[in-house]
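Ligand-bound model needed. iron/sulfur cluster.
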Amino acid sequence: MHQAMLFEKLIDSRVRCNTCQWHCNIAAGRKGVCRMYQNVDGILYNLNYAQASSVAADPIEKKPLFHFYPGSQVFSLGSWGCNFHCGGCQNWEISCVNNPLKGGQILPLEAVRLAKEYGCRGIAWTYNEPTVWFEYTLDSAKLARESGLYTAYVSNGFMTTEALDAIGPYLDAYRIDVKGFTAEAYTELANIKEWKGILDNAKRAREKWKMHVEVVTNIVPEINDDDFQLEGIAHWIKEELGELTPWHVTRFYPHYNMTDVQESPVESLEHAIDIGKKAGLKFVYAGNIPGHESENTTCYSCGKMVIQRQGYQTKILALKDDSCAYCGANLNIRIDREIKQ
Ligand code: SF4
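Prediction:
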């Protein structure tokens, strides 16, 4: 157990956790919604510190992050539990648990060492919600940055502003889910009614902390595939994050408690791409459809392909810094000098 960083003591040995927007008010001996923070005699502890459920050297494109060090390998770490309880969770074996299960302990220094040993350019906290081992990700992010590695959160975006501001100085990328654009959609998908703080976090990550932000919407038939949801998300990205922010619309596959819902038809993803483009977004990608032509990055200005992707094979064709090598248009891409062409 590791003492939590963001909590306040209340009367009768209760505590309030301020790590995510649930702000759980927890009695002594009890746990919060995520099951990974526990009140022990009036002090809040995180049960997950360094408890890794999943570890891999992944292509950064798998997160998905398409405009952030394209073609690089990222040391990817997940723990246990989640502050959302999504019926269609694809990682439910690690997310929907009441305690950290048997796994490997990887302390922050070891994570940095392993990232380098496996030739990774950075570290991502992914697979489950990073906020539920917040203290660990913060300690690790500081060390990673000192070691010259990039850092990325793959998140549902439900952390508090306090948590975001604590880790903001040490995070380079924020890959955030925007699951819908109404309380009804968020409630149906994740049992979350107050969802707009998620949007505020994405904006704050970009504006205050200068993180690279990419947005994912998993398109679930008859829940968030209507024009109202999709146009709402697309216009919000354009207006609040900017037209160069990548939006990934990904195919839903039945998982966990939503095996009665069909996988999303390819046409509904292509319709979402159209909506994104009509809203003015320059980069909209279909995900979970290997070989789909939208996987490539095409310059919106001259129309030429600048990054080619086939599955997780990425080939940089024509970048000059963060811009198109053909016409100079800004493509909002963070890239290493040594791998650019
Ligand atoms: S991190 Fe967990 S305990 Fe803390 S507020 Fe969120 S759900 Fe509750």
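The mean pLDDT is 94.
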